[in-house]
Amino acid sequence: MKEILVSLPYFGPISQFKELVNPLKVWVEKEDNFQKQTYRNRIYIYGANGKLSLNIPIKHLPKTKVKVHQKYSEVKIDNDDKWQSVHWKSLKSAYQTSPFFEFYEDELSPLFRKEYLTLYEFNRDCLETVLECLQVDLDFEYTSEYNKQPEKIADHRNLINAKSRISLPEYIQVFQEKHGFISNLCILDLLFNEGPNAVAFLKTM
């Protein structure tokens, strides 16, 4: 059985779910450090004006003379600015006319009503909810220690990097006629546009 190692993003880009849909053992990284410019606290969706970034605000550690790395699993969310309401309204605005938004709305909306203290806990629930929506039953576990160069396992943790440009096959998107196809958006873009066909699409990529 093929084993892979992935990071835990905010929902995650389509390129990561491409690696998750085949029968395999999945290890989800829990012990890494938090890094900026990654999908750990941001997603890209397709809005009426094109590609739109939604970011989860986090509480940063106090600045010190010595750079301190913060463990991802310990990063706390800054809930003062009511980001969940903003993100859900943005998702509804972008996808309420898509073929399958209403089909998954009741499963996803509770994620934006429950207050989470840590980014890790929220992202964990996002992953598990999307897997349920996709009806993908994975054998996965969370890591207990950080291994920079794991052996005998396919390391896909680099897919957490939001700066990477990855070209993927096209599918029909809500605002495609306005701005063209936008590749490798958040998995929700594929889910809302392709619905139950999303897994079959991922497996052919």
Short description:
Helices cover 30% and strands 13% of the residues. It is of the alpha/beta class. The longest helix is centred in the middle third of the chain and has 16 residues, at 119-134.
Describe the protein's topology.
Elements: E1 3-6, H1 14-20, E2 25-28, E3 42-47, E4 50-55, H2 83-95, H3 101-108, H4 119-134, E5 139-142, E6 154-155, H5 176-179, H6 187-194, H7 198-203
Parallel strand pairs: 1-2, 1-6, 2-5
Antiparallel strand pairs: 3-4
InterPro entries: WbqC (IPR014985)
Pfam family, one: WbqC
Organism: Gillisia hiemivivida
Describe the fold and architecture.
The chain is of the alpha/beta class and 205 residues long. The protein has one domain (3-203). 30% of the residues lie in helices and 13% in strands. Strands 5-2-1-6 form a four-stranded parallel beta sheet, covered by helices on one side. A two-stranded antiparallel sheet has the order 3-4. The radius of gyration is 17 Å and the shape is globular. This is WbqC family protein.
Shape verdict: globular
Overall number of domains: 1
The biggest sheet, with number of strands, parallel, antiparallel or mixed sense and barrel status, is: 4 strands, parallel
Distance between the termini: 20 Å
Mean pLDDT across all amino acids: 92
* Whole-angstrom Rg: 17 Å
SSE series: EHEEEHHHEEHHH
Instruction: Give unreliable regions as ranges.
Output: none
Helix content range: 25-40%
**Strand element count:** 6
Which structural class fits the helix and strand makeup?
A: alpha/beta
Assess the beta-strand content as a share of residues.
5-15%
Give me the number of helical elements.
7
Strand order of the largest sheet: 5-2-1-6
